[in-house]
């Protein structure tokens, strides 16, 4: 018996119909006239072949993310930002995917981690009528795309589990167009939608769960405050674990008597690498944000980010956070946890403490002072083409406190410290107080339920309630909450059991 060749395969037809065949072209033309091929054109513009035999899930997702014009927020190669299979590694190591493939739940996790909206359904969580409705909706729009997870055997094709996007729909014939990302094997092809449902309604032996489909769409606005946080970054993993697992236990202590105790309890037990998390959030995009060649869209994103940070700083919770972080008893203890020595926040604090030492006539004694608040401002002189930087802060020691302003000379090799829309450091890059406030707001409400004092509990609930937040900040906080809970599911290996990520936005 002759062995099947390894240069392409003959597409079993029926049941599939080759997209490039006469009948396939006829179906395509009729579907265009019916308006059910709108999603096809964006997808075909970014149609790609999986780079590894087991990368079908990664190829399908990167193709859809690029078709939706979602900015990955990090570089691919050279200066270019672009989704590639190699960048989709935050929920499963690439080597593992290369060897074993990837599960349905992990692809859903990746899509969410990449900043997309995702609605996912296993076949036992949906019906063929719902599936048909979703395929029709995405085929008549280019705002969402369907990725199907199915078993090839149902179509008499070689192979087992596979992922591919659905490129269109022929309503009269009830057929779906599969844009097979294994183009080295089979070309795009039309299949009966009922048979595709049957192919999805199979069990993945690796998980023991049904396959299914997911709807991937673009968020109305990309997150601006903390961007999209990858669950691959170790400091984010430990921070998320601390907030979701350990904080509720800490708050159940009888020692929590008021809001100050609550926040102090949270802050004094932060993970040892929380400083790395702050540095990652605040510093990782600094160079890109300062690029003078930013597009109007990117400049708009930075303006939104500045507005979000401003709204964070206007919350009642932020005022409590800054009071705690700057309290004389806690500031030096927390300082070591909150920031690496080379962060701008600590540099500014160090400058102010040195200035306080000079004013006290004790040069070199900056370690005897703690800086409660700092800001960095850039000013342009009227008659000269130069800028000056002023670092301001409130410095405390065992005797009292004093305000300090220090003039810092700019390096001639550096450009102006002013960035788009703002000259203030805090306007462009979140500091510890900004990040901590956002994270506390993003915690699920049940986090605080262990507080035994009912009055304190109610006061905390009032402070962390997102119902009264401005719509822009509320959207940011809900996105961050979804990421926290999604990461917890990933690390608890629960992404296969429960695919509902978007319900977090309702909490």
UniProtKB/TrEMBL annotation:
Q: Which GO terms describe its biological process?
A: phytochelatin biosynthetic process
Which domain of life does the UniProt lineage start with?
Eukaryota
UniProt keyword list: Acyltransferase, Cadmium, Metal-binding, Transferase
* Domain Peptidase C83, chain residue ranges per copy: 1-221
**Molecular functions (GO terms):** glutathione gamma-glutamylcysteinyltransferase activity; metal ion binding
Q: Read off the SUPFAM superfamilies from this record.
A: Cysteine proteinases
> Which Enzyme Commission number(s) are listed?
2.3.2.15
This protein is called: glutathione gamma-glutamylcysteinyltransferase
């Amino acid at each position: 018996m002759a062995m099947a060749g390894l240069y392409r395969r003959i597409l079993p037809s029926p049941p599939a119909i080759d997209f490039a065949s006469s009948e396939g072209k006829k179906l395509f033309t009729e579907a265009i006239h019916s308006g059910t091929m709108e999603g096809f054109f964006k997808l075909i513009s970014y149609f790609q072949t999986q780079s590894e035999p087991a990368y079908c899930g990664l190829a399908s997702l990167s193709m859809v993310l690029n078709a939706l014009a979602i900015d990955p927020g990090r570089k691919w190669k050279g200066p270019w930002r672009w989704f590639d299979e190699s960048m989709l590694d935050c929920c499963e190591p690439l080597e593992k995917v290369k060897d074993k493939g990837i599960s349905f739940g992990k692809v859903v996790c990746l899509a969410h981690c990449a900043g997309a909206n995702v609605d996912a359904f296993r076949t036992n969580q949906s019906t063929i009528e719902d599936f048909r409705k979703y395929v029709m909706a995405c085929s008549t729009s280019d705002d969402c795309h369907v990725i199907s997870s199915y078993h090839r055997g149902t179509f008499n094709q070689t192979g087992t589990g596979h992922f591919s996007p659905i490129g269109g729909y022929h309503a009269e014939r009830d057929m779906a167009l599969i844009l097979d990302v294994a183009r080295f094997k089979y070309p795009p092809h039309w299949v009966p939608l009922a048979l595709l449902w049957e192919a999805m309604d199979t069990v993945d032996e690796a998980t023991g769960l049904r396959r299914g489909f997911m709807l991937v769409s673009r968020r109305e606005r990309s997150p601006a405050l903390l961007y999209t946080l990858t669950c691959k970054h170790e400091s984010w993993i430990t921070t998320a674990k601390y907030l979701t697992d350990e904080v509720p236990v800490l708050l159940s202590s009888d020692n929590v008597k008021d809001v100050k105790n609550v926040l102090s309890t949270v802050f004094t037990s932060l993970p040892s690498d929380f400083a790395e998390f702050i540095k990652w959030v605040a510093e990782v995009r600094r160079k890109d944000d300062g690029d003078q060649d930013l597009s109007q869209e990117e400049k708009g994103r930075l303006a939104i980010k500045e507005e979000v940070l401003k709204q964070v700083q206007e919350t009642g919770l932020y005022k409590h956070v800054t009071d705690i972080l700057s309290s004389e008893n806690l500031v030096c203890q927390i300082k070591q946890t909150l920031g690496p020595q080379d962060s701008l926040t600590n540099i500014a604090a160090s400058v102010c403490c040195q200035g306080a030492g000079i004013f006290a006539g004790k040069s070199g004694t900056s370690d005897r002072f703690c800086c409660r608040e700092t800001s960095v401002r850039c000013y342009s002189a009227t008659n000269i083409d130069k800028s000056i930087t002023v670092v301001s802060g409130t410095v405390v020691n065992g005797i009292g406190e004093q305000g300090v302003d220090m003039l810092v000379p700019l390096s001639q090799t550096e450009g102006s410290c002013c960035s788009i829309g703002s000259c203030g450091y805090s306007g462009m890059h979140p500091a510890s107080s900004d990040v901590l406030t956002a994270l506390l707001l993003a915690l699920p409400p049940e986090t605080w339920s262990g507080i035994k004092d009912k009055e304190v509990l109610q006061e905390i609930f009032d402070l962390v309630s997102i119902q009264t937040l401005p719509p822009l900040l509320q959207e940011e906080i809900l996105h961050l909450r979804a990421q926290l809970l999604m990461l917890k599911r990933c690390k608890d290996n629960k992404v296969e059991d429960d695919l509902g990520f978007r319900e977090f936005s309702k909490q």
